[in-house]
């Protein structure tokens, strides 16, 4: 890695170790993930994606502040390590909710923690990443009980929400779809209410 001047979109698909991934000097304006030992590069989200992220962040933060025993950490900068993969695989969801996070523990690695809910806002540049790749990867993480997927955030009639979910001990996902007029609730977050569209508040 020391021979590389800078890592950018031209390095998409490059084989890397996790150590090299951490040591990289990355060109700004892109998002970088390590999936099955290969660098995955995608553009930064567009404004509609960012607005949806802000909306979700506000709702989830309020819930976390009032329910600290249920959500011990809400992160938008985490890595989720997928077990059972031959090479390091750590997708980075838009949001991850943790109930096993030990605040002040001094841990410096995301490998020590695993979320129970992950959230992605569909990338318009590569929707297959969220609908195919991440569905498979998050299913392999036994602590993840729900995967929320928001789409059509930049359309007049949007957004929509798909929830992949399973019961404790189950492996396979089940999925439900919600339109922009729906309000989502889940037993994992008692008292939480999420209008799918920010305009529905």
How would you describe this protein?
It is a single chain. The chain is α+β, with helices and mostly antiparallel strands and 201 residues long. It folds into two domains: 33 residues, no CATH class; 156 residues, tt1808, chain A (Alpha-Beta Complex), CATH 3.90.1570.10. Helix content is 19%, strand content 22%. A six-stranded mixed sheet has the order 3-4-5-6-7-8, sandwiched between helices. It has a two-stranded antiparallel ribbon with strand order 1-2. It has a two-stranded antiparallel ribbon with strand order 9-10. The termini are far apart.
The major beta sheet can be summarized as: 6 strands, mixed
Report how far the terminal alpha carbons are from each other: 48 Å
CATH architecture of the largest domain: Alpha-Beta Complex
Task: Assess the beta-strand content as a share of residues.
Answer: 15-25%
N to C succession of SSEs = HEEHEEEHEEEEE
Q: C-alpha Rg, in Å?
A: 17 Å
- Give the spatial strand order of the biggest sheet: 3-4-5-6-7-8
Query: How many structural domains does the protein architecture include?
Result: 2
- Which residue ranges are poorly predicted, with pLDDT under 50 across at least 5 consecutive positions? none
Q: What is the quaternary state of this protein?
A: single chain
Output the CATH class name of the largest domain.
Alpha Beta
State the helicity in percent bands: 10-25%
Number of strand elements: 10
What would you call the structural class?
alpha+beta
Shape estimate = globular
**What is the residue-mean pLDDT, rounded to a whole number?**
91
CATH fold naming of the largest domain? tt1808, chain A
